[in-house]
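Anyone up for a design puzzle?
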């Protein structure tokens, strides 16, 4: 049956069909109808308007918003949420003065999660990850990108990607998958980085490609991890299997990853906490969406990406959670929105567009998700009554969600 939502105090995030992303000054506007209704058929938005023009309600199942607001669900275009266990000991180590990079150099960090994951069956890993999926769905995430990268052997990377596929079949949240075999060099290949890169190119990518397990390919292009030259070779190999790049760059140091991303038509280039100013120019006029992860800077006490400068220079940006056990054990996109405003100095409207339409773009989904547009999927958040859009990031720990419609 068709659904009609009535008495919506603010219907936020309306865009005309065909808008793939917002850039520069466009990001500061969120089209809104006050006192609105919206109708849904077969899971898609079919119409909306002011309450003065509400259609006859008898053909609909009616949901009364009771003065709450409606907005598109959050899209989270960068997570590593299929992981085993947790790493709170490193959290304590960091409080006591170790840095994220030092922990990694001592053989901890990502490799700890790799050891934990190796011991789990696919079913156990699935159950742990599904638990996190339920958590983010309740917090309003309607689309999520999930990366592999805690396997670092062909067998364990496939295990993660198969779990992601099962999640996407079982969850109402829309899921896209990314192969991140080049997340770190495994313990078995310690001191043999170039052999590990060959393993990724010659064995992992063909195996992933053959099963069609990944939409995208990622490399942790950063100091102490993979070089731009290695990144380029891996992305080229992925392209042969139709995996478009979405890469990690400039998290720990200026890595040269933005150049590689642009050269390989990456859909997004993510992190950018240590991005030098010249790299902003490299991104202008390209299809690559810079994606900032302020939760990572917050949790690791690191610098924040120059998001304000990017927007002022005319770029669009997306925001993502980075949900993972080491640098960001949280997938709360409302909090990410708050950090976007408080730490990246985005206006609430810019932060809103960064977690909806631009985030959908950064995972290749903006044709179907990320805005209130006739024909798009009705992945919607219905809030308790809130006074304004700015109240969403302002109320930075208040739960405002009444219902998530997927
Ligand atoms: O995006 N930077 C690389 N990967 C993750 C962290 C992985 C981990 O510490 O487990 C990130 O921050
Ligand atoms: Fe990440």
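Challenge accepted. My sequence:
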């Amino acid at each position: 049956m068709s659904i009609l939502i009535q008495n919506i105090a603010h219907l936020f995030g309306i865009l005309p069909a065909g808008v793939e992303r917002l850039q520069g000054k466009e990001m500061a506007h969120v089209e809104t109808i006050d006192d609105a209704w919206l109708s849904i058929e077969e899971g898609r938005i079919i119409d909306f308007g002011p309450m003065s023009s509400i259609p006859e309600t008898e053909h609909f199942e009616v949901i009364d918003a009771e003065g709450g607001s409606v907005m598109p669900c959050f899209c989270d275009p960068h997570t590593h949420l299929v992981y085993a266990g947790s790493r709170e000991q490193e959290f304590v180590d960091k409080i006591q003065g170790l840095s994220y990079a030092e922990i990694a150099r001592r053989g901890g960090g990502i490799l700890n999660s790799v050891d934990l994951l190796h011991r789990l069956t696919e079913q156990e890993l699935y159950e742990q990850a599904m638990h996190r999926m339920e958590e983010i769905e309740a917090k309003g995430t309607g689309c999520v990108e999930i990366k592999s990268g805690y396997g670092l052997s062909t067998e364990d990377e496939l295990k993660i990607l198969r779990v992601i596929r099962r999640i996407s079949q079982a969850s109402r949240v829309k899921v896209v998958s990314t192969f991140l075999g080049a997340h770190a060099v495994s313990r078995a290949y310690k001191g043999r980085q170039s052999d590990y890169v060959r393993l990724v190119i010659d064995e992992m990518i063909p195996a992933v490609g053959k099963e069609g397990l990944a939409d995208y390919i990622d490399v942790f292009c950063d100091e102490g991890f993979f070089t731009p030259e290695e990144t380029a070779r891996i992305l080229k190999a992925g392209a042969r299997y139709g995996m478009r790049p979405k890469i990690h760059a400039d998290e720990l140091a200026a890595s040269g990853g933005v150049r590689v991303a642009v050269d390989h038509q990456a859909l997004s280039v993510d992190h950018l906490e240590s991005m030098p100013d010249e790299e902003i120019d490299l991104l202008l006029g390209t299809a690559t969406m810079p994606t900032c992860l302020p939760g990572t800077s917050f949790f690791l006490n690191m610098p924040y990406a120059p998001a304000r400068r990017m927007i002022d220079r005319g770029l669009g940006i997306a925001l993502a959670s980075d949900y993972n056990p080491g640098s960001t054990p949280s997938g709360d996109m409302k909090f990410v929105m708050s950090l976007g405003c408080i730490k990246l100095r985005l206006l609430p409207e810019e932060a809103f567009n960064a977690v909806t339409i631009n985030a959908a773009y950064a995972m290749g989904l903006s044709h179907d998700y990320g805005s209130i547009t006739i024909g798009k999927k009705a992945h919607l958040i219905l809030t308790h009554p809130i006074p304004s859009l700015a109240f969403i990031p302002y109320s930075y720990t208040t739960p405002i969600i009444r219902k998530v419609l997927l």
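A detail worth pointing out: Residues 337 and 390 are 10 Å apart (CA to CA).
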